[in-house]
Write a structure and sequence with these properties.
Number of helices: 6
Structural class: alpha+beta
Strand content: 15-25%
Helix content: 25-40%
CATH topology of the largest domain: PH-domain like
CATH class of the largest domain: Mainly Beta
Radius of gyration: 21 Å
Number of domains: 2
Order of helices and strands: HEHHHEEEEHEEH
Strand order of the largest sheet: 1-2-3-4
Number of strands: 7
Length: about 200
């Protein structure tokens, strides 16, 4: 199967942030990913999680830490146990700070890439993981929007191949988590499947 030269291919819009402005070039891929792609493979779209990912992507953990801080402060204030409210607040602030730093690192290391041959996900703060599925093996592209995602206009795409069976990404499926304009991204993936996976 031969692929047309990159200059003849229309670029699909890459949405970045809430305004959807800007198309990311191949040079803007994570360095390790850019080096691993063949020179003739055309990058159609590069996405990152929505900036809302930093605030609401781990909202459950933020709320849990806040609740523990609140309970600890009330216990200390009522002197039910020998707990200092100031110490509870200090530990809580440290825990919140660490969670925010982790979210920022997680956000910065995630990339979702669509090329003329495959869909990919790159992620990992400490250990780097790259998953890809050839376009001609993708069997379904499902869109999921939980309430948090719907409120901010984000969503998650689940991309599955024929090999998907129950062991997660290793079985041929992965997600593009918390992306802006997920309907548009889903349409671009489907369009790429139609255009590039047919002989």
């Amino acid at each position: 199967m031969t692929f047309p030269a990159p200059k003849n291919l229309p670029r699909l819009e890459a949405t970045v942030g809430l305004d959807g402005a800007g198309v990311l070039a191949r040079e803007q891929l994570p360095a390790t990913l850019a080096k691993s792609l063949p020179g003739d493979e055309v990058v159609l779209m590069v996405l990152r999680p929505s900036p809302w990912f930093l605030l609401v992507g781990r909202l459950d953990a933020l709320v849990s830490i806040g609740v523990v801080i609140g309970i600890g402060a009330v216990i200390g204030w009522l002197q039910l146990l020998e707990v200092r409210s100031g110490a509870v607040l200090a530990y809580g602030v440290i825990a919140l700070s660490l969670l925010i730093i982790w979210n920022c690192l997680d956000f910065a290391t995630r990339a979702y890439v669509l090329t003329d041959r495959r869909a990919m996900r790159v992620s990992g703060v400490i250990r780097r993981a790259t998953f890809d599925i050839p376009l001609n093996r993708i069997q379904s592209v499902a869109l999921h929007q939980g309430i948090r995602e719907r409120i901010v206009g984000a969503g998650t795409l689940l991309i599955s191949s024929a090999a998907a069976g129950g062991a997660g990404a290793s079985a041929g499926e992965f997600t593009w988590y918390f992306i802006d304009r997920p309907e548009r991204a889903s349409a671009h993936v489907r369009e790429a499947i139609e255009r590039y996976s047919r002989p």
